[in-house]
Amino acid sequence: MTEALSCQVEAELALFAYPVRDWVRPVRRPDGAFVHNVVIVGGGQAGLAIAFGLRQERISGVVVLDENPDGLVGPWITYARMITLRTLKFLTGPDLGVPSLTFRRWHAARYGEDAWESLVRVDKADWMRYLVWFRATLNIPVRNNVRVARIEPAAGLWALHLDTPEGGAVLLTREVVLATGLEGAGARRVPEFVRDRLPRDTWAHTADRLDFSGLRGQRVAVMGAGASAYDNAATALEHGAARVDMFIRRDTVPMVNPFRALESSGFWRNFPDLDDATRWRFMHRLLSFPMPPPQDSVDRVMRHANVSVHYATPLIDAAPGIRLRTPGGWFDTDFLILGTGFGVDLRDRPELSAILDHVATWSDRYAAPADRANAEMGRHPYVGPGFELLEKTPGAMPGLRRIRMFNGGSMVSTGPISTGLNGMPFGLPRLIKHISCEFLRDQAGALLEEFETYDEPDTWEAVRTGRDGAP
Known about the structure:
The protein is of the alpha/beta class.
């Protein structure tokens, strides 16, 4: 079972224990206040993996913060309405190359090898169980039910103002990693006519938590043609909705998945090092493609008789009641679900308000040709090769580089290596390397002074324990 696998993890990690010592020297405020080395905001698959990677780099003083309860982190059993993950079952990521930490080993330990061989896609609840096991096995320090309300500079450090069950608190750190997923650099897209004209209890975004049992016997409209739109339509039908109408602005369901053309180690690993014009051109093409819904999501909807899909029928207005207007006229329904995705705009992140005016965006750094202009791409932060935020005006906020955007906001700068399993094996090592390098710069002077006077005897005990850095 998984207990034995956890023991195997410990044994495998022991094989990679050298160097054995934590090397980043702690700092304290003049008043003695404790300072973390790294605070990771977001305790999902990326946040847990980053914490593990920092431990492997022997960087201590790390904590993960997540606003959700333990066991309910990420979308998997909260608002993800698909039945299985959309990625291939054999993809790795959080394990960082440790075999016994892979999902495959966990699944085989829990259900047996035959179950793995017959598995097509990963059950989303199993993925959540795996992440819970991953966190417990590695004893990753996570504080749940903690929301970061504001991040602001504090005498060369970063102060995170927190909302906790016990009240407000302030946490100090040298580095901040925003591992906050697709929504972490913006907000859910909600058309103005929906927000302004419909009562809030008559509509939901696909990322909202929603009790679908309340839609039994109701007429439900779904806006969008992506995977989440189809998954939510299917969930409403399965919970007894009287009928579901899907409104899609395109003439047909998209069929081409543009990510497939870019799946190579060369692209994932090296894209952030390309010049601006090339990166923009790649991302403009990628983001111009609509992502197709998985075939099983489409089939899950279309097996129901009480569903209608309205192609080339965008929703363009609304009125209480609720009434939805299309180019062909008005449509009456009882509830609206928005499969409209997420936007990128740091102005939608209140926790970043203290730094917002200093963050360089792509519109600040690159003038796109007219045929590739894209306002939302221009709002993406222009992040450095280690996912670090960069200053709009050099010298105005030098510490900004110690905030790293490992979320949807880095897409234009680094490619899709921080928001899914496909790119995680390439994004994580890059992030860890750059954090490690920054800490070495911090203490290189002191280390050099010590090194120039180093004269400890090279005893067997020192070699055996790795204290002196000998192989």
